[in-house]
Write a structure and sequence with these properties.
single chain, mainly alpha
Length: 188
């Protein structure tokens, strides 16, 4: 399916999109090259513009770091989804877990364009992230990562894992010289 059509489907008709996604053959490589690497780049590219006033070197480091972290977190979260699935009545299948994780991030990755607004774009990304987790909830039973009656607790556990990964990623970014002191200057 074409990229734009898939984006529309996930954003506007996620229940139908998940059925199509579940039926499609895929590999880890095809999901990454055809989806993750493209959409995960939107926010970092917008970061280059939104935080350029803090210096080109700093905004480039932040953008590259954010991109690498998005790629890694997507993979790690898919591994977590795959490992947790049997505990919630689902089946282990890493490619299905990666599909679920990668495609559910769509709204958040697209909202990354709000990073051109600098720090204030974060609210838009937060709202899109909430919708992204709703799409995850809808897709979990379809991709057999959990039974329908356990979709809510499964989604909540995965969201908590994603938050923990995000906090760890924030610590990594802070350790790379892009910490709170720099962020305070960005807010002023």
């Amino acid at each position: 399916m074409a990229l734009i059509d898939r984006i529309k489907g996930i954003l506007l008709e996620p229940k139908f999109a998940w059925t199509a996604i579940a039926a499609e053959p895929a590999t880890t490589q095809s999901i990454y090259t055809g989806w993750v690497m493209i959409l995960a780049a939107i926010g970092p590219l917008a970061t280059l513009v939104g935080f350029a006033d803090l210096g080109v070197a700093w905004s480039v480091r932040l953008a590259v770091g954010s991109y690498v972290i998005a790629l890694v977190i997507t993979f790690v979260l898919a591994m977590i989804v795959d490992v947790l699935a049997p505990s919630f009545g689902g089946q282990r299948d890493f490619v299905a877990a990666l599909k679920l994780t990668a495609y559910s991030y769509t709204a958040a990755w697209l909202a990354g364009v709000a990073n051109v607004l600098g720090t204030f774009g974060g609210l838009i990304v937060l709202l899109a992230s909430i919708y992204a987790w709703y799409t995850f909830f809808l897709g979990a039973p379809v991709l057999r990562k959990c039974s329908a009656d356990k979709a809510v607790p499964f989604t909540l556990i995965v969201v908590l894992c994603a938050i923990a990964l995000g906090i760890l990623a924030g610590m990594v970014v802070s350790g790379a010289g892009m910490g709170t002191g720099t962020m305070r200057r960005a807010m002023m």
